Amino acid sequence: MVDGYKNQAPEKLQGKYQAMVVCCILGIGGLVSWNSMLTIADYYYQVFPAYHPSRVLPLIYQPFAVATIAILAYHESKINTRKRILIGYTLFTISTFLLIVLDLTTKGHGGIGPYIGLCTIVASFGIADATVKGGLVGDLSLMCPEIMQSLMAGSALAGGLTTALRLITKAVFEKSNGSLRKGAS
To answer: Per residue in 27-55, is it b (16+ CB within 10 Å) or e — as a string?
Structure first.
């Protein structure tokens, strides 16, 4: 049987740059919520001074992320990766919304109850991150390397973006009453 494509020039990749932009946005979306948690650590130190939030929250986040990625890697062949990614981003969205609801319901006051709620939300960030990153890296590893680089660049941009936004909000609300809470939310 003769291969009809043997003497033809390869087709030009179409949509590569659009895919790179989309993957960069997905990379930003995969870390912006967790980076936001880390950049408002001064607010959490004011609300929960006895609980050392910048030390404890990463210790809660990481085991949930590692356990989730281990479970999902073990069951990889049975899981629809696209649904996995959508579930992860949905969990990020819900968790971020719950973080705002927690702050509004407690009116920025600390205590063990709100701190446990915060820790639960941080655990859900870890689960969402493992769900999203594992699925995206797995799917994009089968494509051209530039698309994977774009995803990782988006993850790096998330840190710079949240830091810049935090600096802007701190500058805007510096002199106002309740400045840390207004700048954090």
So the answer is: bbbbbbbbbbbbbbeebbeebbeebebee
What's the token pair of residue 83?
A: 């649904």
Q: Select from 183, 178, 179, 157 the least CA-distant residue to 168.
A: 183
Determine the Cα angle at 83 with ends 93 and 138, to 5°.
100
Which one, of 15, 150, 30, 165, lies nearest residue 90 by Cα?
A: 30
Residue keyed to tokens 């941009």: 157
> Using a CB cutoff of 8 Å and minimum separation of 24, what contacts does 81-84 make?
81/135, 81/138, 81/139, 82/135, 82/139, 84/131, 84/134, 84/135
Spans of all domains in the chain: 23-184
State the residue for tokens 């705002």: 100
Q: In the structure encoding, which two tokens stand for residue 173, read together?
A: 């609300």
Phi, psi (degrees; rounded to nearest 5) at 29: -65, -25
Residue 181: count of CB within 10 angstroms of its CB: 17
This prediction's pTM? 0.80
Q: Which segments of 19-104 are extended strands (E)?
A: none
Each residue of 78-130: pLDDT tens digit?
988 899 999 999 999 999 999 889 888 888 788 899 999 999 999 999 999 99
